[in-house]
Amino acid sequence: MNNKSMTDNTLSRLEKRACPFCMSMRQDTLVMLTMSQLFPVNPTLDQSWFNEKTIPPGFELPIVRCSECSFVYSLYKMKDHVALSYYNEAILAEKSKEKIYKKAKRRSLISLWQQLHLLSEDKDTLKVLDFGAGWGDFLAIAKSPGVEVHGLEFDERKIHFSKAQGVRSGGIDFIKDNAPYDIFMCNQVLEHLDRPGDALKQIRSFLAKNAVGFVAVPNFSDDVLEKHIGALYKGKVEKNLHPLEHLNYFTPFSFRQMIFKAGFKEVAGDGFKAASKKSSKNSRFPGFFNMFKAKKQPTGESTNIFVTISAAHKLKRNN
Ligand SMILES: [Zn+2]
Question: How far apart are CA 297 and CA 303, in angstroms?
Answer without folding.
Answer: 8
